[in-house]
Amino acid sequence: MLNTSNKNTRKMIVIHGGHFSSLAGFYEEASNVLMKETDWKVGTLDGFDDILYGGFGVFENKEEIEIIWKESLKSKEDLGLQTTQEFYENKIRQGKPFNIELIQQKLDDLTEGKGQTLFDILVEIIESHSNITLRLE
């Protein structure tokens, strides 16, 4: 019989790009798969980063996990240039507490083709956690 409690076995978590087409939808999907049975929901990029440290939700702090992002090409498009521009423009319109100069610079970089899209930012957040392996499918 296979020992499923083997420490070398990574816990697999699936984010399904077919379940969402916006950043709010991504947060909902991430909440559903990472925060099962908790009242806490992801609602910001920083909040998404925070839950990836583990210790609450579906995995423990520093536990080795693998995130499989299915339909990632769809997500790359959905969370691409246009959505990212709207994201930054909304923050600029809101003003405080956001750093408008920084956000304007990010928007300018994006327009010039050298900035990160929301998809790029989410991938970078996931990859910044050494205990997490990301697989884009």
Could you walk me through the main structural features you see in this protein, from its secondary elements to its overall organization?
The chain is of the alpha/beta class and 137 residues long. It contains six helices and three strands. Strands 1-2-3 form a three-stranded parallel sheet. Helix 4 (81-94) packs antiparallel against helix 5. The protein is globular and about 45 Å long. The model is unreliable at 1-6 (pLDDT under 50).
The overall average pLDDT, rounded, is 90
Strand order of the largest sheet: 1-2-3
Cα(first) to Cα(last) distance is 30 Å
Radius of gyration: 16 Å
Output the number of helix runs: 6
List keywords for this structure.
single chain, alpha/beta, three-stranded parallel sheet, 3 strands, 12% strand
Helices and strands in order, then pairings?
Blueprint: E1 11-16, H1 23-34, H2 45-51, E2 65-70, H3 72-78, H4 81-94, H5 100-111, H6 118-127, E3 132-136
Parallel strand pairs: 1-2, 2-3
Helix pairs in contact: 4-5
Brief description of this entry?
The protein has 137 residues and is of the alpha/beta class. 45% of the residues lie in helices and 12% in strands.
